[in-house]
User: Which sequence fits this backbone?
């Protein structure tokens, strides 16, 4: 049996730790046939095992007790406008930059792809807000974070999927007190290549797009709830597409296009790896008096570092206690990985071989008048009226 990263196989999450730790130039990172980044080992390998030692997928997830959970909404109206739900990341990042001059590492849309950046500039942080339904590249962020953290007076905030947060800790080999982490309640990630192919349908040069978002708030509505809308921004103009129309978005919503490791995710449970866990609050209906016309987030404070972080930033939120066990029952990625659909084995073959329109017809295009009307409702109608129209169409 090989004593190198090849041993991980389909459990690989694509973090890149193995590439950065290898001193023999024996590992390269390349996209596989589906467009997911994978490590490839060459003849320089001496089977030292360093790559396996730094791989987060080889580490056991620790059991966590005494978590505190809250349903929250930012007090900052500008942050709320561009957030997917309650504005947790943007508010925490802004607070730490203002109070600690912190470095923030999070996913941003850059030149046609989604990748993690490190910044102290709030204009960059704003581009990191909102859901990114594609696997982001960590690129060289981890060595840079390690370098920043050597100065104990400097603070870093890292936000990413649980496997990415685990990769940070595994790469560092410890949990520095000047590093704060937010792990996302993640359903799974499609491939960057699939995402890029979809964007090329809308724009010949995706690298020229200023931003792409998967959640949208209607600026003509006074309500604060976001919808699952693909928003493509180019030259100060936004084009909107319902999730049911776009094939990339539609297959994501059905969990058909995730990385294979996502279907056996080690982190899809309440034993969270980050200091604080953030995501949409699926049990918001249990709190009818808590900002009923707004999209809210849930946060889970997982450890002492998270408790300290929450104590610093909670003044910037409206919040109340959350029933964590009930939230985990209905927000399944807090209890179990997404079940692999039977269609998963065919999705990427079809995406590669079919024309865009044929693929769209098979996986996304509405086939009835009712579905088309619902798609329009999801895109343009204020939230308060959606349920009336949707109930009528059922």
Assistant:
């Amino acid at each position: 049996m090989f004593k190198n990263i090849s041993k991980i196989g389909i459990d690989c999450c694509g973090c890149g730790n193995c590439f950065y730790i290898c001193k023999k130039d024996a590992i390269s990172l390349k996209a596989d046939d589906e467009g997911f980044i994978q490590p490839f080992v060459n003849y320089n390998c001496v089977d030292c095992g360093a790559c396996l030692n730094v791989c987060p997928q080889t580490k056991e997830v620790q059991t966590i007790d005494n978590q505190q959970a809250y349903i929250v909404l930012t007090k900052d109206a500008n942050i709320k406008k561009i957030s997917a739900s309650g504005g947790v990341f943007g508010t925490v990042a802004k607070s730490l930059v203002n109070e600690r001059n912190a470095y923030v590492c999070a996913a941003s849309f850059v030149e046609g792809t989604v990748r993690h950046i490190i910044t102290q500039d709030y204009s960059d942080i704003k581009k990191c807000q909102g859901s990114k339904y594609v696997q982001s590249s960590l690129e060289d962020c981890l060595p840079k974070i390690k370098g920043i953290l050597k100065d104990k007076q400097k603070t870093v905030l890292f936000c990413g999927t649980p496997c990415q947060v685990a990769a940070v800790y595994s790469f560092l080999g410890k949990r520095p007190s000047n590093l704060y982490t937010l792990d996302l309640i993640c359903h799974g990630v499609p491939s960057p290549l699939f995402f890029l192919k979809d964007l090329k349908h809308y724009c010949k040069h995706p690298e020229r797009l200023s931003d792409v978002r998967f959640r949208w708030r209607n600026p003509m509505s006074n309500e604060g709830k976001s919808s699952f809308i693909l928003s493509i921004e180019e030259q100060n103009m936004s084009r909107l597409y319902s999730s049911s129309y776009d094939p990339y978005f539609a297959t994501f919503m059905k969990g058909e296009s995730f990385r294979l490791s996502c279907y056996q995710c080690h982190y899809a449970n309440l034993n969270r790896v980050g200091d604080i866990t953030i995501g949409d609050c699926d049990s918001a209906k249990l709190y009818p008096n808590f900002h009923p016309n707004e999209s809210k987030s849930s946060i889970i404070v997982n450890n002492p570092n998270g408790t300290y972080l929450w104590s610093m930033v909670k003044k910037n939120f409206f919040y109340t206690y959350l029933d964590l066990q009930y939230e985990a029952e209905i927000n399944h990625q807090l209890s179990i990985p997404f079940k692999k659909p039977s269609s998963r084995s065919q999705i990427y073959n079809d995406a590669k071989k079919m024309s865009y329109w044929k693929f769209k017809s098979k996986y996304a295009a509405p086939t009835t008048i009712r579905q088309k009307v619902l798609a329009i409702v999801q895109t343009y109608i204020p939230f308060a009226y959606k349920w009336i129209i949707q109930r009528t169409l059922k």
